[in-house]
């Protein structure tokens, strides 16, 4: 898979800019040059979502009515159009997806460009909240699995509607069983698909050899079923939200402690270096999963990797990633090992 060109119009700090990419492209500039915005734009073309915000309007340049992110990928043109909800005084969708100028749903748009991203913020997968770890599972599966994308959309819609009914029930002290029946059926159906596919992904990760850092993943699944919804019916009536289902899943990363001969949670017992290596290994497992399932290599986004890892680790990672398209960012050229800096196309931001 090859990303040839990226065009940004009224996206974040960019009024209108175009970037061309090679097999290995290095983006250099100070932190204030918001190199990460370019990475965000590429990710947006891949998933149809931002990895940094769930509010589309935040990606739109301040004061602009319309913004665009466009990319040329393997002979296809992918485009995301952003608005603040109004264009020329008329109501407009905040986000629109196009493939070769043909409008698409997000579930059909995602999957035209695969990316694996690594950035300092990914440490949150290990040390952050369960929602960040769930988002990582979604990031992996939504890119390559159409059924999973559909299941996530339908499940989230069902949970929103069901929570509205629960809040109404909490206020009125009366539960309309007929109203709940449809949404219960929907969340059980699609929630079960999400659980099954997340479980298979974790099993795949655990089955693979780990060259950088060895760990195991425990899938702490929150199963949704008619029986469990009934079991928590009274508690849900009190709090007004759905208490069971994959929206409450978590995953735990465990490393083996030779001294105590026990498995320990990397979040609580791993050093910061071990936590970083766990994230890096996890991203390499994501890469292997994509290539195994789709038989093609994704675009790799390595944001500030040169300041995160020592030279030995960097060389090891680059050896593993050899032959794939990679977009790097760094604040200073001197962070980049000399033996590789001369091979890259360099984009300098000021």
What does this structure look like?
There is one protein chain. It is built from 13 helices and 16 strands. With 350 residues, it is an alpha/beta fold. The chain starts with a strand and ends with a strand.
Describe the SSE topology.
Blueprint: E1 3-11, E2 14-20, E3 24-28, H1 35-47, E4 66-73, E5 76-83, E6 86-87, E7 90-91, E8 95-99, E9 102-104, H2 106-109, E10 115-118, H3 124-127, H4 130-144, H5 146-172, H6 177-207, E11 216-220, H7 226-231, H8 233-239, E12 250-257, E13 262-265, H9 266-269, H10 272-294, E14 299-303, H11 305-308, H12 311-321, E15 326-330, H13 338-341, E16 345-348
Parallel strand pairs: 3-15, 3-16, 10-14, 14-15
Antiparallel strand pairs: 1-2, 1-4, 4-5, 5-8, 6-7, 8-9, 11-12, 12-13
Helix pairs in contact: 4-5, 5-6, 5-8
The profile of the biggest β sheet is:
6 strands, antiparallel
Low-confidence region ranges: none
Overall geometry comes to: globular
| Order of strands, widest sheet | 2-1-4-5-8-9
Radius of gyration: 22 Å
N-C termini distance: 29 Å
Give the overall pLDDT as a whole number: 91
Q: Can you count the helices?
A: 13
Structural class: alpha/beta
User: What's the SSE pattern?
Assistant: EEEHEEEEEEHEHHHHEHHEEHHEHHEHE
As a percent range, the share of strand residues is 15-25%
How many DSSP-defined strands? 16
């Amino acid at each position: 898979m090859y990303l040839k060109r990226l065009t940004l119009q009224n996206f974040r700090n960019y009024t209108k800019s175009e970037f061309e990419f090679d097999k290995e492209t290095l983006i250099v500039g100070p932190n204030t040059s918001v190199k990460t915005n370019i990475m965000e734009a590429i990710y947006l073309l891949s998933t149809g979502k931002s990895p940094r915000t769930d509010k589309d309007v935040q990606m739109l340049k301040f004061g602009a009515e319309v913004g665009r992110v466009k990319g040329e990928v393997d002979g296809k043109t992918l485009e995301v159009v952003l608005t603040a909800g109004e264009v020329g005084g008329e109501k407009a969708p905040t986000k629109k997806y196009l493939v070769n100028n043909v409008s698409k749903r997000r579930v059909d748009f995602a999957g035209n460009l695969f990316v694996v991203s690594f950035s300092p913020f990914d440490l949150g997968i290990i040390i952050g909240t369960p929602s960040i770890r769930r988002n990582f599972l979604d990031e992996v599966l939504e890119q390559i699995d159409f059924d999973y994308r559909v299941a996530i959309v339908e499940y989230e819609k069902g949970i929103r509607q069901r929570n509205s009914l629960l809040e109404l029930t909490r206020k009125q002290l009366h539960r309309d069983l007929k109203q709940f029946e449809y949404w219960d059926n929907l969340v059980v159906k699609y929630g079960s698909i999400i659980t099954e596919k997340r479980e298979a992904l974790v099993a795949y990760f655990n089955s693979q050899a780990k060259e950088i850092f060895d760990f195991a993943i425990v899938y702490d699944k929150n199963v949704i079923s008619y029986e469990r919804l009934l079991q928590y019916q009274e508690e849900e009536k009190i709090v007004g939200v759905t208490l069971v289902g994959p929206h409450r899943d978590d995953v735990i990363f465990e490393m083996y402690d030779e001294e105590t001969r026990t498995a320990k949670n990397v979040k609580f017992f791993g050093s910061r270096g071990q936590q970083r290596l766990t994230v890096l290994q996890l991203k390499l497992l994501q890469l292997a999963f994509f290539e195994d399932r789709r038989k093609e290599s994704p675009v790799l986004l390595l944001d500030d990797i040169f300041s995160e890892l020592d030279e030995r680790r960097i060389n090891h990672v680059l050896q593993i990633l050899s032959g794939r398209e990679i977009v790097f960012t760094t604040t200073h050229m001197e962070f980049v090992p000399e033996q590789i800096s001369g091979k890259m196309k360099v984009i300098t931001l000021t």
